[in-house]
Design goal:
13 helices, 55% helix, two-stranded antiparallel ribbon, 303 residues, two-stranded antiparallel sheet, mainly alpha, 5% strand
Length: 303
């Protein structure tokens, strides 16, 4: 039997036990399912979580109002001044207005990366159901926030598949605790910060439609949302054979076969033809841009 001779040996043993625990936890995670696991190397990447979601970054209605009044090319300063002077967000101080814009708008829709804002504005103007806007906004937000992405894919949908009907802050707190031990948090967050982040996460999932109160919802992305996301991936040069397997679909709990079946249902009359032969997949787009696709989807819904 090995004898523990001093405090340092005890700390070394504790560290080895902790590392072993983390490794065992990771073995339970399907490789490639979560952002922090690199599907090629099968090692943890250097993703680090932030407290952004606990600072109001998930306020969908404020984001919607900002986009409704956005003028492409307008500077952040001019935009903030105009929003405050016209009272478009309803906040009483310029400081609060500027803070909201920085947190939920400038982070995702900077002038040199305005593509998401352009797409979302076109959806708003089109008159498509509000859920289509929310679905695409959620994708763009999750891409910028690994904590939102990972928790949704690895914890929320895993819980839904296991039949869990209620989600509380303790589930998010457990996820954050594991994230601290395997290095996804730069520093250990205080209890109050962790609780604020957990509540922000659940509030976002509720706003998106994944939760009703505390109850989980087996949410299904709209046909329009699926078509627009597929086209957006296509325009980002994702190959036809890779579109259905893209990780973004897992934000909606979808497998590759479910994605292809859904897009096949969209059909030529709404912009896309899906052809499958064995492992070969080919998309034929009867539109030339996302804007044209949105117009076609809107016209079909109004017929």
């Amino acid at each position: 039997m090995t004898r523990i001779s001093n405090g340092r040996d005890m700390r070394d043993l504790s560290a080895r036990v902790l590392v072993s625990f983390v490794i065992q936890e990771l073995k339970m995670i399907p490789i490639g399912e979560c952002c922090w696991i690199d599907p090629k190397s099968k090692k943890m990447n250097k993703t680090r979580y932030t407290t952004t979601i606990g600072k109001g970054a998930g306020m969908i209605e404020d984001t919607r109002r900002l986009l409704e009044h956005r003028i492409p090319g307008e500077s952040l300063g001019d935009f903030t001044y105009r929003i405050h002077n016209q009272g478009l967000l309803g906040y009483s101080t310029a400081c609060r207005t500027g803070d909201i814009i920085k947190r939920i708008f400038n982070r995702f829709f900077k002038p040199n990366n305005g593509r998401p804002a352009d797409i979302l504005q076109q959806i708003l103007i089109s008159g498509l159901p509000s859920r289509v806007f929310t679905e695409l906004l959620f994708v763009f937000m999750a891409r910028q926030d690994p904590l939102v992405y990972d928790f949704t894919v690895c914890e929320y949908w895993s819980a839904v598949r296991r039949g869990r009907t209620v989600m509380k802050t303790d589930m998010v707190l457990d996820f954050l605790s594991k994230a601290h031990y395997d290095g996804r948090l730069r520093n250990q967050w205080s209890q109050s910060v962790s609780i604020r982040v957990a509540r922000g996460m659940l509030r976002l999932l509720r706003d998106v439609g994944f939760l009703h109160g505390r109850g989980t919802v087996n949410y299904h992305i709209s046909d329009e949302g699926a078509a627009i996301l597929a086209r957006e991936l296509h325009e980002k040069s994702v190959t036809d054979s890779s579109i259905g397997a893209h990780p973004d679909w897992r934000l909606f709990g979808m497998t590759e076969s479910e994605v292809l079946e859904r897009l096949d249902r969209v059909g030529e009359h709404r912009g896309v033809i899906v052809q499958r032969g064995g492992s070969v997949v080919h998309f034929t787009w009867v539109v030339k841009s996302i804007g044209e696709l949105i117009h076609k989807l809107t016209r079909y819904r109004n017929e």
